[in-house]
Give the backbone structure.
Amino acid sequence: MTIASALPISVTPRDGESIESWLEHLADANGLTTAQLLTHLRSRGANTRYLTLAPAPATIAALAALARIPEQTITAATVSAFDGTALDLTGLDPDDRHSYRQVAARGWTPAHGTQICPTCLAEDGAWRTCWRLLIVTACTRHRTLLVAECPGCNRPFRDQRYSHLRRVGAATVCGNPLAAGPTSQCQHDLTTISVEIADEEVLAMQTRVEDALSRNAVVVLGGRVDGAMYLADLRHLAILLLHLASQPGARRLATWPARLAAEAQRRTGDRGPRWGLRPPEDPGLRAETLATADAILKAPDLEAAAAALMPWTELTPPTNEGPLGWLADRTVMTPTLTRLVLSARSGHRRLSHHLDTHPPSGVAMKINHKVVPQVIPHQQYTEHLAGASESGEETVRLFASLSLARMHPDVTTWAAAAEALGMPGPMGTRCARACTRTMLIAAPDWQDRIWAAIQDVDRRDYRATEAKIEHRRHLTSRWFQEWARQYRPGTRYTSSPYGLTWQWVHVAHAHIDISPAWGGKTPTAKDRALYRLFENSLDDQQQLELAYALHKRA
């Protein structure tokens, strides 16, 4: 058949349809074979190299004239529509067959073949451009995972090395060449392929990916970021997780690392699988990896995201380059990923992970927060905790109590540990950050020390003692006046807040900053100084009677 300058029947690509799918429908509509259509295109001087990826402007113009549709419509049907979001096609030159190497070296780039959604093909016969993207793993419309391999020939779909278009045209059969000759193609009906329902986490991740591919902003660590930035963070974090998932212990963090081992065995090379260049072929495995990464990125803030990443970074193997060197060598450390990894590897988070996952030997029951004072007493600090940290004594004593609270399975953050002991959450976070930076011993040693310390602390309900002192604040100061008259004559009755604070610090072993005597306000430097004067002025009998006064009727 002779083809005129323009084809008699014009076909417009469907929304999201790939250029090769559109050309196959265009050929069918005009009674042409796909080979005839490509031959005519080349006869007009058009270069078909990188036709599906990013064809030359002259090729786009020739196709637009042939099909009588706008050039931008054709460009939108190529993978180049995602340049600047999921892909970086910088350096790709249709006139240079070697230029694709620059693009491929950046990793996760489309190669031979594509994924499909069989249900989509059954509905309209159109192959989607986005199915070629390795960061796309599911069809959010049908809530199913994509399929990457034809069950008839056991090869990727559109696995053709010598033509961009299938000989079978727009038919919804596989069409992969099976042998030499024009009639040897796989005839498996793609619309009959069974599909797997995608998990909600995968669908949520895929929805965010689609927003980013549409160049919309996406929320990362509680703030809105450019879609391209999110896609880069998602990909590089997933690559890091793939490398960590190959380490011993990964299977207790998620189910998908067990399936990763089989695919890793098929990868060759002295350094093992190069996940940065090519992710797992199985869309389901890739989807779960990306969903794990996305769950970290959509955490409400850096603190929560780092806490989620930290168990994974604990799998980092010991090497001469150190943990951070090993992690940085396995992926591209974007600004977001750098912040995440540094935060996840911080001392207080690593210690918290040890406390959460390694209960002391011989401890079978949950720790009772009521018998843990807000601040470990001075005597137990001297006997068990001195020398464990370069921080001050008060900080270390508070941190010891917080660490004991963290050993309860329901307490998973330092803020929650503080709240479990009756203190404001931020106080726990600040103390943990300050003390872990100055620790002089390893996490197991610290755990052994605080466990030994709490065994020597008087076992009673410290929350009840705190409540009793709090209640006394609302009563008259008659108890203090009686104590002062008998044991410290000349003491002003206006000093009763210092007496109440002394009981708070020395009887309840609670933190001075939240003494009920301050009326809910943070004590000033002057408040602290005046209290210390009062505290240091007491002799042994005065202290004994002041402690005993707590148990008398007010």
Observations:
- The chain has 24 helices and four strands.
- Strands lie at 138-139, 144-145, 218-220, 223-225.
- Residues 227-244 form the longest helix (18 residues).
